[in-house]
Amino acid sequence: MSLSLDFLALPLLAAASLIFFSVLAGVVSARAGFSFLLVFLVVGTLAGVDGPGGLVFDDFRLSFWVGNVALAVILLDGGLRTEFTTFRTGLRPALWLATLGVVVCTGLTAVAAHFLLALQWPLALLVGAIVGSTDAAAVFSLLKSSGVKLNERVAATLEIESGMNDPMAVFLTLSLIGIALTAAAAPMAGPDVNWGALLIALLHQMGWGAALGLISGFGLAWLLIRLGRGPDGGGGIRALLIVSGGLAVYAGTTALGGSGFLAVYAMGVIAGNRARKQVRPALSAMDGYAWLSQAGMFLLLGLLVTPSELLRTLWPALGVSLVLMLVARPLSVWLCLKPMRFANNEIAFVSWVGLRGAVPIVLAVFPVMAGVPGSHTFFNVAFVVVITSLLFQGSTIAWSARRLGVTLPDPSDMAQARQVFGDFVIDASTPMMDLCTFYGLPVPSESDQSAGRWLREELDRPPVEGDSATLGKAELSVRSMDGQRIKQIGIKLGD
């Protein structure tokens, strides 16, 4: 009698084949502008019970576990690549978007879910919370693969927001699950909400997440510096050390009731900046870990979907998705960014790139595991939202960025640089009186100041490359920066 290894070979064959064909299809589809992540999700669905693959998979617990681990790895990788300089322009708006923005988006989406899906308000709010946050995996990967260079303000806001808004979405989802279960148990009494306890829980999650993330980030940076780079650069082994440390911090923070997502992102930011020389060789391996995490997560989540069930709520779910993309996200972004003097084109782009990815689907597993009535409907709605977001928003990032004018020219493309910044370049220290006299422009009231100071005050916000202001018939723009100081100004003269 011989031992059969089918229990090893067959699942491994299925998993490896799915990933292989997903990556192959992704390479082909990326040339047409479609997202790799969308391909993984679709391949997983086709391999599922209603597709040609016919694989029966309904292990929500395993998918939940894989999804959380994968998101932790992706956030860690994103944090390692986030430079401190981006926080100068991106932290404050990202914080508002990651807190108030998620709450507003949740509420507006809940209105659509209430009327389109005929859900009671606790359940409608739960749907809004599930799809209310942007997805780090989608934002990091699609911005990187779009091929466009965004101005620092927009890029930093989007990246930091996607790394920081998961804790709020998780908190809202868990809180609303408790409210929904209470309402289901006593439908006549209505939910008894202890708002004080919820606020304390939120502060507890954020506080532990931020504190443990910062402490572990400094600790990891110190360790990496002490270890050095090693004889071979140590890229692969350093990446393994970073990933295992990040997952330990994520798990420990979660066990203490804190936000593991916030902790692992903060850890990556601190370690990536304080030990930049030691981390840089590991980024290539980290990129591989992140892509493997995304592939496994999206394939498993695709396998969970049953298209025949999804079709029953397809049109209402599409309605919720459209309200989210065209109403809830734009209004929440406008409320958060307009007071910070973001330009209208920047607000429009940040609104459009509110990408939904694995996070909503992972959050939709929460109510399924908790036994919330009708929870499979939430999962189907989240799946439709993600598909439409990746299909319409994810595939148009480059086009919308150019259309809305939030891109920067390639430094080597002089023709494009002249088109954006104008034909003339001056030093920012040039006195305004000299500049206005030479180009025949109206002299501002404080003519004794430099052109750089005038432009900074006219913008009334931290300047970034590509910012511009009008003076008479001319447009003055920030052509280059030296830290926080404007270094060069481009001048474009009108007719």
Automatic annotation (TrEMBL):
It is found in: Cell membrane. The chain crosses the membrane at residues 62-82, 94-117, 123-143, 168-186, 206-225, 237-253, 288-308, 314-337, 349-372, 378-399. GO terms for cellular component: plasma membrane. Residues 417-495 form the Transporter-associated domain. It comes from the Bacteria. Keywords: Antiport, Cell membrane, Ion transport, Membrane, Transmembrane, Transmembrane helix, Transport. Its main location: membrane. GO terms for biological process: proton transmembrane transport. NCBIfam families: PRK05326.1-2, PRK05326.1-3. This is Transporter-associated domain-containing protein. It comes from Hydrogenophaga crassostreae.
